[in-house]
Every structure is written in C-alpha cells, then in structure tokens.
Amino acid sequence: MPRLPSLFVSHGSPMFALEPAQAGPQLRALGASLPRPRAVLVLSPHWMTPGVRVTTTAAPETIHDFGGFPAELYTLQYPAPGAPDVAARALELLNADGWNATADTEWGMDHGAWVPLRHLFPDADVPVLQVSMPRNLDPEGAVRLGRTLAPLADEGVLLLGSGSITHNLYEFRHDVGAAGPGYAYEFVDWARRAVTGHDGDALVHYLERAPHARRAHPTSEHYLPLPFAYGASAPGAPVQVIDGGMTYGVLAMDAYRFGDLAQASHA
Questions:
Q1: Where are the transmembrane segments (predicted)?
Q2: CA–CA separation, 226 vs 51, rounded Å?
Q3: Please, which residues have CB within 8 angstroms of residue 52's CB and are 6 or more apart in sequence?
Q4: What are phi and psi of 172, to 5 degrees?
Q5: pLDDT by position in tens, the chain (length 267)
Q6: Cα–Cα distance between 110 and 120 in angstroms, integer?
Q7: CA distance 94 to 53
C-alpha cells in the first residue's frame, strides 16, 4: 500500500451528523477516493488529557459528549471496531520520541471523531482509535505530534486531525446556512494559502500571522488538529483543499488532504 495522506477535517456542530450541508457529500467522496485504511487514528479537541493517551479498546463506545440537541442525535451510533494493534504501535512511536504516552481502555469515540467519520466512512467498517490532545499542546507541539506518528501512514493508517478552521462560538448563529462575517472568510483564505504553500512557520505562528486569528479561535484547541495533520504529512506533499462552506455563521467546514493525490486515489 502507498503512504496514506493525512487529513484535516472541520467537524462543525454535532448536528453535522444529521445536517451534511455542503461538507458531508464532499467528505463521503474523499473517503471513497482513499485506499481502504488499516485504521484511522483521530486527534480531536474533545478529548484533552494532562498527557498523551491512546485508546486501546477493541470496541469503542460512541460518546454523545454534548447537550441540548434534538433527541435523534443521541440515538446515533458509530459501531466501528477499535485497533488495539495500531494503538500498541502508536504508543511505541510516541514513547520512543519522549511523549510518555499511556494506554487508555475507557475512552471511546467523541463527536470530534465519529461525526466526521460518519461521512468519510459511512459503513463504520474501518477500525478507529484516538490519541488525546495534551492540555498544554501548542501549534509547534502539534506539528511534532504529527511527525511522531507519521510512520503509521506508511503502515496503512490514516492520520486524521478533526477540528474547525474557524471556531468562535460566541458568535454562533442558529441558522445552519447563515453567512459568516467577513473576518471568518479572511481567516479561511489565509489558512488555504498557508497549507497549499507548505508554510509550516505560518501555521505554527498563526496568532501573529493570520488575520483575525484570536477572533477566529478564541481558544486554540480546534485549530491544533490542523498543524497536527500538516506534521503527519510527507514534506512538500501536494495539498487538496475541500471547500466545505460556512455553517452557523462561524463554523467554516473546510478540509485538507495532505498527500500524493494521484497515487492514493488509484491504489
């Protein structure tokens, strides 16, 4: 199998599971274009821990880690199997690089994992595991975390950073199709230029380089899966930008595929 690309996806609101809008069909097409992964390893901002942890369960639970949504959302399940063998390999790589990572047998799949995976792999037949986001992670550390786990891409594992390219919930609008304010589109345009230009320095120093960075991301946790996915990719790998549109006025739904597009799609 060729080296798999790494992905960044915007997972939006939990309602993305029921409201695919513009991004859902595009993620489904993206998943269908990939060679079947041995497993998907997900970094999500909805599992933050004091250090690095990796899920080792063979049957991860679908976690409904949100409140105040329609009852239908809480009935959804994503019954993908776990990947204990890949978890063991991930722990080996992490600890060899000084992350002092530990196994976790309790965590399942939070909505940052299963909601976008419902679109990418709707049959829930690809094994899934998660790596936690350390509470003290910064963009430089996120790149390093991706690089530490990058050898898994050569072993058939899809490395997935699930976050949001913009994430200011203070400005959340209740209409899924609401247009965003100008600053959100400016940040999206900057991010597209940074990833397609392989500007890792800009991605690390986004608070100083990106327009309206602190307004687009009042906190960093939904941004960090982007430098993680960048770090997990091969140096200079071609980038595909997937325009997911804007939802709820403030949640841009772009995704990025870092990898050899022609090789992966025809494997």
A1: none
A2: 19
A3: 94, 99, 100, 101, 102, 131, 132, 134, 145
A4: -60, 135
A5: 689 999 999 999 999 999 999 999 999 999 999 999 999 999 999 999 999 999 999 999 999 999 999 999 999 999 999 999 999 999 999 999 999 999 999 999 999 999 999 999 999 999 999 999 999 999 999 999 999 999 999 999 999 999 999 999 878 887 777 777 899 999 999 999 999 999 999 999 999 999 999 999 999 999 999 999 999 999 999 999 999 999 998 999 999 999 975 444 433
A6: 16
A7: 10
Distances (CA, A) of 59 to 19, 73, 84, 111: 26, 21, 10, 16
Residue whose tokens read 């497993």: 39
Cα distance between residue 200 and residue 219, in whole Å = 20
Does the pTM surpass 0.85? The reply is yes
Superfamily covering domain 6-265: LigB-like (3.40.830.10)
C-alpha pair distances (Å), 256 with each of 9, 76, 114, 193: 7, 26, 18, 12
Q: Is 101 exposed, middle or buried (0-12, 13-18, 19+ CB in 10 A)?
A: buried
Contact between 46 and 110 (Cβ < 8 Å): yes
Two structure tokens written together for 261: 């597009």
